[in-house]
Amino acid sequence: MSPESKKLFNIIILGVAFMFMFTAFQTCGNVAQTVIRSLNSTDFHGSGYTSMAIIYGVFSASNLITPSVVAIVGPQLSMFASGLFYSMYIAVFIQPFPWSFYTASVFIGIAAAESDRRTVFIALTVISLVGTVLFFLIRKPDSENVLGEDESSDDQDMEVNESAQNNLTKAVDAFKKSFKLCVTKEMLLLSITTAYTGLELTFFSGVYGTCIGAINKFGAEEKSLIGLSGIFIGIGEILGGSLFGLLSKNNRFGRNPVVLLGILVHFIAFYLIFLNMPGDAPIAPVKGTDSSAYIKSSKEVAILCSFLLGLGDSCFNTQLLSILGFLYSEDSAPAFAIFKFVQSICAAVAFFYSNYLLLHWQLLVMVIFGFFGTISFFTVEWEAAAFVARGSDYRSI
Questions:
Q1: How far apart are CA 394 and CA 397, in angstroms?
Q2: Backbone phi, then psi, for 273, in 5-degree steps?
Q3: Strand partners, 289
Q4: Which tens digit of pLDDT belongs to each residue from 34-57?
Q5: Mean pLDDT value across residues 344-348
Q6: PANTHER family in the record, alphabetically (predicted)?
Q7: Domain boundaries along the sequence of the chain
């Protein structure tokens, strides 16, 4: 197999593996609070929000040490171990206990009958494990240095030792560079935007589905609407990601119009959710809520908002990844580590306060961060455009 074919093969395997893993994990996260709330009437007592807060809290901290771990054990084993932890978290729902539930959340960084619940989560666990096993199909790239016949085994051992030392050195350098990058003007401004993506990630991936499932006025379909909501969030993500991802290569207007579209779409979604759902929906008890919203709660409006949440999220994420890749194209690892750190820690905070805040307060927090995050993104994009127009190297500032 040629090097190009091997790279393409690895990309396909990675894509399929992550598709299986995150299909299972995101589905699990979307219904976690609803499932746990239905179990709290039994001997089990826990919170899906708290579980997800632990996951993203640990995930944010692990972003600082992940390069070092990968340098030591290699990317293939790292991804395989991570896949096992994802599968372990999902498997806990088959027969949950509070200690195992929260412990699995640390390692990871519906209201249906119990037999149905077990069937669903056994299937999700199997799907996740299939994706995990696929990592073993990844083929290592060919070594660029071909040993000659006159090279001794001592020379080979020396090269292996030097390679290991270089990997550790690179990991330490990336760790230090991440901290230095945190205090630069551009990264501080983009951190506000990134913080917003963490908050809205929490909302559409965990809170919004719980709100839909808690509204008794939706009738017998309230729980099935959670799955439908997840599908339309995914449709919005796919549409926005493919459209704006392709357009970004030939977009002479820059990234700001896409981000502006994203925040307008989200503000429309937040306003419709505010009108369509009762304020106590995120923290409603197992029996749900009979409270009234400002308008008659509509299933169609709820699903429309799901689509808008996914579309708006794709607008922000495609442009954030694009500008980070542009600003730090020569050494992007520390920049993306900071991006995931800020996003994950904000998602953890949002999952924590989701246990206590009513819906309108959660929407207000996102509106405030979304507004200032958009302004901060505009500022960085304008500066980048000005430096490019002058023919300067933006990365030098």
A1: 6
A2: -65, -40
A3: 215
A4: 666 666 555 555 555 666 677 667
A5: 88
A6: ET TRANSLATION PRODUCT-RELATED, UNC93-LIKE PROTEIN MFSD11
A7: 1-100+111-138, 182-384
Mean of all residue pLDDT scores within the chain: 76
Which residue, among 396, 186, 219, 203, has the nearest Cα to 306 in the 3D structure? 203
pLDDT band with cut points at 50, 70 and 90 for residue 341: confident
Determine the topology of domain 182-384 in CATH. Growth Hormone; Chain: A; (1.20.1250)
AA identity, residue 14: L
Confidence of residue 29 (pLDDT cuts 50, 70, 90): low
Residue 254: how many CB atoms within 10 A of its CB?
17
pLDDT one-digit tens code per residue, 123-156 = 767 777 777 777 777 777 665 444 444 445 555 5
Residues 6+ apart with CB under 8 A from 364: none
Q: Which long-range contacts (CB under 8 A, 24 or more apart) does 50-53 make?
A: 50/102, 50/351, 50/352, 50/355, 51/101, 51/102, 51/105, 52/105, 52/202, 52/206, 52/347, 52/348, 52/351, 53/348, 53/349, 53/351, 53/352
Give the Å distances, CA to CA, from 320 to 113, 190, 363.
42, 8, 22
| Residue 303 identity | I
Q: For 134-168, b where at least 16 C-beta lie within 10 A, e where not — what string?
A: bbeebeeeeeeeeeeeeeeeeeeeeeeeeeeeebe
- Name the nearest CA neighbour of 174 among 321, 71, 320, 327: 71
pLDDT tens profile 364-388: 999 999 999 999 999 999 887 776 6
Q: What is the DSSP letter of 143?
A: P
